[in-house]
């Protein structure tokens, strides 16, 4: 937008005075922040209304991205950047004696997601709006987001996240757009003059109250909507439940049970637990979202048969897969369509993305729980299942194993992935290798049945948040050198390659990285009182803690290095600082035990004078989007070391690459594509391949003892886990030891250990050649544009959603 400094100052002072009846000198920092936020909201509002009106007027096909999680991160700085007024605002505030960066730090970071899946949804929202696509988000307004992690004596403690403690600036409550969601009760199908109709009795009805957050595009005209629903007790219920009769307890219990639905985000992204409340959450936002979409559709006055020409709905993993049943219900019961028409519309409207192949994370609901909670949906799913079996048996005749593997209801469970696949016209994985594994192994039978539905959409990240906002100096350099065409097309980052031999550019890169590292040094000193060396290699592994992500492999190498340095303090290595940031699911004991190990190892190493500060270990508490924005720009080495075949894609790998780090990786997920882009000389690859892992798993031929017996270094490390080296309590690391000795090292940590140590040595050698290292960083940055979520979204738009960019002027 066009805004002069003086206009901004005038607007700001006015906003502050009108809202808080204070001048800039009297106002508290909090009020200064709030006034700025409210002013920016004003700036956005007009375009927001215009965008919506335009979409309706032009009847643009709109996409709704249904996701249980949206890990947005702070929004104020993004809004300023996308409005292109950050510099004006910063200067204007400075004139008023206010520091913008201090205000930005006051914004709460809404953590409405666990990790990769939720952050991907947020990147996609940004790209949709920035490219001018009509695409909105739909999810839950959790009162409490992902827990805040506190490390106490090395252990993870979970504290309640309370991001709504102060008003959240960016949401607008829309009570008039409330819809009703129905749970439980009994449904009977009765014959009426209008045909068969479901009659409900004894159900529970809940209000889904929408809160809208504007998603502002960098194109400065599109403002899409993220609509999050909150569960409330309907007003009539308050009466019925006895407020007037004085029966307060009953009322309180009921209100509590209803509001529970949007109280808290499940913090587990590693194992499916089949909890009733989670099923209710899923149905709650899916039903509310679909009802809203249908209401909007009615305003277009188009035939319901054309629904999928105007609406596309994307299912982000299986969490919203119940949409298949709910959309069928709405079309059959509310719109009065026949089965075949309803089914045709449903499949054409829905598309599904798979984000994991870990068996323990697959959603399978107990049949009885499903039936009690959403009886009408179960009836419909049973009919879908029956028809599906009929169709498949025509094709495969008596091959029952095929039918059993694909049908939805099986063994007393409702399998949500199967439901999503059968009810969608498109099924995609999130990286080439992941999609291949889906087609050839996990979902092979489905692939044979519906080959045309399967496609790959490699993940991406928004360079606006992960470069422009997190690392503004590097962004400036890339744009300046690679040309303005980069602004609209990150593929043009590749022009940066021209500077591969330009010493000035290489030195600038070096300086920018160093400054970013100094910021981290100051943060770590201030927060943990640990001194770290900005000249050391910043080796970073930040992501959820999970066995397959193998933080354990990283720690084992650190212990190995420690042992080496103890034996030979003169050992010539480049100083290193190992950073970890990771939350563990509260009930995931192995993961929590690994956090304790990292902290215990850190404590010993950081305080051992023999080590002479050659290595340091830092655990960054409460890793989330905000910490990521600090640490990723400072990373030299990006640790992407999952057991091959297990990480669907990864997106941290792309963020580090874009910020000029060298990837140390297995050939897993999108690492494979990063490798293909930058080539063998600009990445360090090690370890088992996916195929090798899958073969070992299939043949069950892996025996960790074979490795252990021939590797004294590993023997020593495992011994140290129970001999008092890292903890006085010799039982301290029993979950880790059991993971190796009891479970047989399921993620091949020991198997890949030597290769990893060798790869780390290679990093050391590469880093010693300063110029060569900087050239690698440059190559990585230049190729990172390929992994912008703008590219991913363009492909979703073209191949799956069939939507076009909207230019309002035209
Ligand atoms: C237990 C319920 C559950 C199961 C799976 C909750 C959450 C999940 C998610 C699907 C896990 C997830 O976040 N997957 C990650 O998705 C990213 C975005 O596609 C990928 O980059 C990661 O590789 C993948 O692990």
UniProtKB/TrEMBL annotation:
Single GO term (MF): pyridoxal phosphate binding
Domain of life of the native organism: Bacteria
Family annotation (SUPFAM superfamilies): UDP-Glycosyltransferase/glycogen phosphorylase
CDD domains: GT35_Glycogen_Phosphorylase
Modified positions (N6-(pyridoxal phosphate)lysine) in chain numbering: 655
Cofactor(s) required for function per UniProt: pyridoxal 5'-phosphate
Reactions mediated catalytically: [(1->4)-alpha-D-glucosyl](n) + phosphate = [(1->4)-alpha-D-glucosyl](n-1) + alpha-D-glucose 1-phosphate
Entry annotated with the keyword Plastid: no
Entry EC number(s): 2.4.1.1
GO biological process, one term: glycogen catabolic process
Keyword check for Protein biosynthesis: no
InterPro entries documented for this protein: Glycg_phsphrylas, Glyco_trans_35, Pyridoxal_P_attach_site
Gene Ontology cellular component terms for the protein in this record: cytoplasm
Listed Pfam families: Phosphorylase
Keywords: Carbohydrate metabolism, Glycosyltransferase, Pyridoxal phosphate, Transferase
PROSITE patterns per record: PHOSPHORYLASE (PS00102)
Protein name: Alpha-1,4 glucan phosphorylase
């Amino acid at each position: 937008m066009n805004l002069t400094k003086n206009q901004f100052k005038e607007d700001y002072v006015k906003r502050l005075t009108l809202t808080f009846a204070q001048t800039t000198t009297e106002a508290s920092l909090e009020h200064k922040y709030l006034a700025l936020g409210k002013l920016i909201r004003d700036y956005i509002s007009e375009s927001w209304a215009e965008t919506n009106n335009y979409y309706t007027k032009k009847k643009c096909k709109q996409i709704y991205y249904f996701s249980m999680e949206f890990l947005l991160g702070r929004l104020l700085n993004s809004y300023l950047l996308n409005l292109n007024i950050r510099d004006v605002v910063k200067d204007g505030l400075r004139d008023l004696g206010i520091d913008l960066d201090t205000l930005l730090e006051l914004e709460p970071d809404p953590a409405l997601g666990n990790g990769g899946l939720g952050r991907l949804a947020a990147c996609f929202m940004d790209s949709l709006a920035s490219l001018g696509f009509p695409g909105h988000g739909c999810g839950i307004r959790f009162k409490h987001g992902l827990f805040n992690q506190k490390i106490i004596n090395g252990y993870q403690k979970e504290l309640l996240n309370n991001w709504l403690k102060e008003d959240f600036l960016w949401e607008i409550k829309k009570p008039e757009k409330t819809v009703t969601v129905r749970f439980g009760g009994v449904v009977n199908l009765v014959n009426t003059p209008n045909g068969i109709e479901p009659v409900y009795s004894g159900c529970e009805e809940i209000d889904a109250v929408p809160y809208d957050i504007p998603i502002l595009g960098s194109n400065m005209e599109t403002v899409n909507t993220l609509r999050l629903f909150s569960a409330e007790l309907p007003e009539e219920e308050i009466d019925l439940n006895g407020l007037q009769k004085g029966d307060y307890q009953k009322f309180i219990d009921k209100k509590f049970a209803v509001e529970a639905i949007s109280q808290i985000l499940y913090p587990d992204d590693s194992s499916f637990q089949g909890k009733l409340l989670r099923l209710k959450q899923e149905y709650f936002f899916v039903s509310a979202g679909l009802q809203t979409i249908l209401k909007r559709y009615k305003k277009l006055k188009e035939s319901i048969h054309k629904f999928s020409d105007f609406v596309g709905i994307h299912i982000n993993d299986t969490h919203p897969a119940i949409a298949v049943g709910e959309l069928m219900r709405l079309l059959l019961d509310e719109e009065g369509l026949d089965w075949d028409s309803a089914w045709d519309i449903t499949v054409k409207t829905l598309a599904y993305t798979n984000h994991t192949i870990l068996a323990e994370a697959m959603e399978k609901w107990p049949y009885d729980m499903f039936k009690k909670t959403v009886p009408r949906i179960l009836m419909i799913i049973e009919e879908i299942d029956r028809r599906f079996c009929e169709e498949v048996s025509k094709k495969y005749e008596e091959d029952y194993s095929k039918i059993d593997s694909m049908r939805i209801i099986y063994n007393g469970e409702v399998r949500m992935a199967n439901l999503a696949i059968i009810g969608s016209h498109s099924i995609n994985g999130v990286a080439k290798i992941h999609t291949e594994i889906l087609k050839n192994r996990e979902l092979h039978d489905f692939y044979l049945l519906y080959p045309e539905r399967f496609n790959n959409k490699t993940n991406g990240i928004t360079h606006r948040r992960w470069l422009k906002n997190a690392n503004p100096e590097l962004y400036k350099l890339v744009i300046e050198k690679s040309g303005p065409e980069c602004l609209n097309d990150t593929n043009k980052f590749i022009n940066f390659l021209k500077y591969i031999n330009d010493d000035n550019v290489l030195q600038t890169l070096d300086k920018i990285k160093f400054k970013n590292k100094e910021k981290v040094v100051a943060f770590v000193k201030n927060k943990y009182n640990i001194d770290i060396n900005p000249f050391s290699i910043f080796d970073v592994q930040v992501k959820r803690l999970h066995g397959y992500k193998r933080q354990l492999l990283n720690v084992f190498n650190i212990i190995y290095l420690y042992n080496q340095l103890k034996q030979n303090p003169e050992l010539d290595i480049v100083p290193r600082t190992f950073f970890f940031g990771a939350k563990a699911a509260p009930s995931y004991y192995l993961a929590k035990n690994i956090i304790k190990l990292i902290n215990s190892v850190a404590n010993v190493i950081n305080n051992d004078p023999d080590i002479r500060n050659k290595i340091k270990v830092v655990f960054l508490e409460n890793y989330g989007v905000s910490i990521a924005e600090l640490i990723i720009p400072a990373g030299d080495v990006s640790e992407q070391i999952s057991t091959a075949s297990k990480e669907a894609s990864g997106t941290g790998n792309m963020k580090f690459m874009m910020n000029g780090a060298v990837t140390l990786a297995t050939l897993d997920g999108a690492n494979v594509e990063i490798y293909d882009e930058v080539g063998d000389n600009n990445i360090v690859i090690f370890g088992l391949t996916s195929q090798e892992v899958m073969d070992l798993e299939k043949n069950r031929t892996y025996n960790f003892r074979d490795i252990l017996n021939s590797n004294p270094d590993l023997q020593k490390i495992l011994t140290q886990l129970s001999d008092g080296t890292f903890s006085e309590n010799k039982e301290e690391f029993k979950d880790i030891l059991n993971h190796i000795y009891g479970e047989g090292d399921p993620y091949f940590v020991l198997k890949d250990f030597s290769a990893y140590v060798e790869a780390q040595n290679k990093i050391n050698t590469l880093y010693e050649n300063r110029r060569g290292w900087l050239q690698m960083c440059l190559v990585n940055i230049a190729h990172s544009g390929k992994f912008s979520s703008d590219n991913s979204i363009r492909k979703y738009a073209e191949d799956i959603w069939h939507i076009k960019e909207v230019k309002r002027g035209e």
